[in-house]
Design a protein that fits this description.
With about 170 residues, the protein is an alpha/beta fold. The chain contains ten helices and five strands; from the N terminus they run βααβααβααβαβααα.
Length: about 170
């Protein structure tokens, strides 16, 4: 089975780094590309949780790309943050999917016809591949570290994984 190629935005990298699970990206995707703006967003503050892990992952398992200045980037930058606009432009240039969780960024990617991936989908696929045994503890840890997900989406994801939420 062929694995997809993606350009990663900041949110999924931070979420996975906070639960020490960046390695799952290498199991789920054939290649991970990271725009320089996303790399800077996630690693420039070395005291930020996950910054060192993201830097190490990028160095060892991803391909970094210079920031783009094309028309797609310029149009996206008018309504998305820098990292999202860079990721969108790079994904279109490479003809690959985008790993992004922020709603506006996902909507912009859908309008452009890009294959979409999110951190919850990465976790589901990692479980299907036998890379992890349970999603619930990882989701709880991500939420404790500030990753926001609606209760309905959390429940739907756990149902797809044949799991139930832990009592709060």
């Amino acid at each position: 089975m062929s694995r997809p190629v993606v350009v990663a935005d900041s949110g999924p990298l931070i979420a996975l780094a906070c639960c020490e699970s960046l390695h799952l990206l290498s199991a789920v995707f054939d290649a991970v590309h990271i725009p320089q703006a996303v790399f800077a967003e996630t690693t420039s503050d070395g005291s930020r949780a996950g910054a060192a892990a993201i830097a190490a992952f990028a160095r060892d398992h991803a391909q970094l790309h210079a920031n783009r200045t094309d028309a797609i980037y310029a149009a996206a930058a008018s309504h998305l943050d820098e990292g999202e606009a860079q990721a969108l432009s790079l994904a279109l240039a490479l003809g690959c999917g985008i790993l992004i969780d922020e709603r506006r960024g996902r909507q912009a990617a859908m309008r452009r016809g890009l294959p979409l991936f999110g951190v919850l989908g990465v976790l589901l696929q990692a479980k299907r591949l036998g890379q992890i045994t349970e999603l619930a503890p990882m989701l709880e840890r991500m939420q404790r570290n500030g990753y926001r997900v609606s209760h309905a989406l959390l429940e739907a994801t756990l149902k797809l994984a044949n799991e139930t939420a832990s009592p709060s």
